[in-house]
């Protein structure tokens, strides 16, 4: 493996792809008129309650600890959860340190139990329908996820010349065509060569990335989304980089010519910065100037008018 390709593999391993504390552009009623409603919903409240079908969470991490208090204190582990175990939770609570916990409904003995949010996933009811989700109206965030087997049926390959180090990438057909138009415009209008570092990613791949990040940084990590909760699984999202790899997956990418051009022009082609500086500041999450999601030109312009994010 040469040095440049090794850098890419390492970056994909460690990168904040799909920050945990972020919500996507969709409203629960699937109405395009409020496509930006969910963007600022997370990261602000210390407690979020659930009712009815919204309260079911599934453990994805085999061997996850179940605590009898919302802190990883000595002797606090009450039991061990297995992958696939379902919890009925009545709230998500945050400790003063910012770690989020699912408060599980009382057991037979009346005890309250807590499970770290990092080990659980939830399928949003809006995402449970069969078939491809409408582009721009998918709901993806820390409390709203996709089925683990969700994979768009219209994934197509991105031509190799648009891919960093020629690593194979896939996007949904509409998103790919818009992306190629955007990258061609960057070359034509500004002489910039921008390439795709990462695009569609399955829930299984996301689980592997998240498991490694938890192992190295603990459940407090906010850099890698849980499986089912990453925008990359939508097939409409791409992490972009300059051809030279300058400031690859780093905040300083925003200061490059490529980063500035993308920030100013992405909406022309139907893309938005999911984790822009404005949203990151409001929600207390990581800023990712390289992460772009396709939601369609009309939705992107509507978002620009409502978010005031520049």
CATH class of the largest domain: Alpha Beta
Number of DSSP helical runs:
6
Domain tally: 2
Weakly predicted, low-confidence segments: 3-45
β-strand amount? 15-25%
Shape: elongated
Count of DSSP E strands? 14
Supply Rg. 19 Å
What is the helical fraction, as a range of percent? 10-25%
The overall average pLDDT, rounded, is: 81
Largest sheet: 6 strands, antiparallel
The chain-level structural class is alpha+beta
* Named CATH topology of the largest domain: Muramoyl-pentapeptide Carboxypeptidase, domain 2
What is the CATH architecture descriptor of the largest domain?
2-Layer Sandwich
Q: Span between N and C termini?
A: 40 Å
């Amino acid at each position: 493996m040469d040095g440049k390709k090794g850098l890419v593999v390492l970056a994909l391993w460690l990168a904040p792809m799909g920050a945990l504390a972020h919500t996507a552009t969709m409203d629960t009623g699937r109405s395009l008129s409020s496509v930006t409603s969910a963007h600022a919903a997370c990261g602000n409240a210390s407690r979020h309650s659930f009712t009815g079908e919204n309260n079911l969470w599934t453990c994805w991490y085999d061997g996850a600890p179940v605590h009898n208090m919302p802190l990883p204190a000595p002797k606090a582990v009450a039991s061990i959860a297995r992958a696939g175990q379902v919890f009925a939770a009545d709230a998500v609570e945050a400790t003063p340190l910012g770690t989020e916990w699912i408060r599980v409904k009382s057991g037979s003995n009346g005890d309250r139990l807590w499970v770290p949010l990092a080990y659980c996933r939830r399928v949003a009811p809006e995402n449970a329908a069969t078939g491809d989700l409408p582009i721009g109206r998918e709901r993806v965030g820390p409390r709203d996820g996709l089925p683990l087997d969700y994979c768009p049926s219209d994934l197509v390959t991105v031509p190799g010349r648009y891919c960093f180090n020629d690593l194979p990438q896939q996007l949904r057909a509409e998103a790919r065509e818009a992306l190629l138009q955007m990258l061609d415009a960057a070359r034509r209008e500004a002489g910039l060569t921008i390439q795709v570092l990462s695009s569609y990613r399955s829930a299984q791949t996301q689980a592997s990335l998240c498991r490694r990040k938890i192992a190295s940084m603990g459940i407090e990590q906010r850099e890698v989304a849980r499986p089912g909760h990453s925008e990359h699984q939508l097939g409409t999202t791409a992490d972009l980089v300059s051809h030279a790899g300058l400031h690859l997956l780093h905040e300083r990418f925003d200061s490059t010519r490529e980063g500035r051009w993308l920030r100013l022009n992405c909406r022309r082609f139907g893309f938005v910065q999911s984790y822009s500086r404005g949203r990151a500041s409001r929600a207390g999450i990581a800023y990712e100037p390289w992460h772009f999601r396709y939601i369609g030109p009309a939705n992107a312009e509507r978002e620009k008018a409502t978010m005031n994010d520049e």
